[in-house]
Amino acid sequence: MTVKEENFIFPDHLSMIQDYTIAGRPLVDLVREIQTIYCSDDRPWIIGFSGGKDSTCILSLIYMALLQLPDDKRKKHVYVVSSDTLVETPVVVDMIQRVIDTINESAPQENLPISAHSVVPKTDQTFWVNLLGRGYPAPNQSFRWCTERMKIHPVSEFILDKVARFGEAVVVLGSRSQESASRAQVISKHKIDGSALSRHTSLPNAYTYMPIENWSADEVWMYLMSAPCPWGGSNRELLELYKGSNQGECPIVIDKSTPSCGNSRFGCWTCTVVTDDKALHGLIESGASWMTPLLAFRNKLYQSRQPENSEEYRNFRRRTGRVTYNSGDISDDSVQEVRHIPGPYWLSKRQEFLHELLTIEKGINDDGEAIELITRPELHMIRREWLRDPNEPDWEDSLPGIYRAVYGEDLDWVEDDAGAFTRADSETLEHLSEKYGVPAALIRKMLEAELQVSGLGNRRGILNSLESILQRDWEDLEVINERNHSLRKRGKTYAEEVKEEFSEFLH
């Protein structure tokens, strides 16, 4: 349906602004407030744009407010920033990118100082590098490691860059008090008396402005659907997306007080914080059946996180090489059983996950949908993490083979990334391990430590490295549990015992 075919209440955005009253306030009055605050100083504005209804509403209001200003008063820049975690729901990513492209095309034509930008997490902090590369378990309520790395940091860095350049900045958000009681509390707490601005909760010299703070969700939709967008087009696609999924959007996250996507709003298709991803279900049922494999893969990640499946999916050692237990119980001798805390995903499971993810990606593309579920820089970073894994170094350098098995071609792999050992070396160590009763992984780590200083005149630190390796938990979990229980009774730690036992060799 084209814009001309839609039945708008108003023929253009300006007519709506001049006529409507929302939340007890004429829209023309709100637009004047936006213009007044914009013209009052030289601080640049940053609009947090998530692609959802509230941030689209904010973007429309500010675009319209600047459009009604004379050219000589459009003095300072307005940056529109959108956070792409690289695992966003694909249809939402596409829609956001279209809006960003439209803004960047139309704003210069209208002589508006507006530019739209998409920020992404650093390659070594993406979802897949952490989950597949380092083996982090899929996020849940108690260990939601994703939000800060993938959402808060990229947007915060963008804001802080502007603060460093201009001294201060104003972040314009689509936050509303009616979203939640906790959100209303945060908004009220940081308000500056006598000002429409609030102090940013965590970023110094940054302020927030929330023009639709008192609007209801129905009023937001009334605004969005009553007239064409000020940059052209309509919000029909956005409305259909909401109707299709029965969900709300994931807000732009700039601090820990901003609600994340834990209630299954539009956000990451990989989100395992919720039991059931209703947004994906709704989109698939509404016709986007090509996303069915994504939902199945997301559900597999969710199951891998459940306690009853930890033995199958997760190493009993942490990335430190040590077996750890629930703190508190471990110091109570009256408790016979303490809760073991599992570590990262087994390397074999990460390899399976990656093979399946690439297979899904290729299948979707072969069926005509252009999509990149995992970036190629992420694959290079994951390969590096596997080669240097603290528990299970990938001596076989398996990632290029996994990619080749799915795509039938090679990427430009960096040869220097390959490990120092081969599959044959690994098999030899396993044989010697069985013969002499010494864990193969222990010998492997000690050889790697030696290779790191091989050829160096200064071998300072090698003894400390070897001592640290020896203090790791190398036995089977059952043996480790028995040993630690015995040590607790004697009031000793495993590190102390190792130090005593090998003192003459290490010093």
UniProtKB/TrEMBL annotation:
Keyword Ubl conjugation included in the entry's annotation: no
Gene Ontology MF annotations: transferase activity
Keyword flag Transferase: yes
Keyword tags: Transferase
Gene3D superfamilies per record: HUPs
Protein name: Sulfurtransferase DndC
UniProt organism field: Kushneria marisflavi
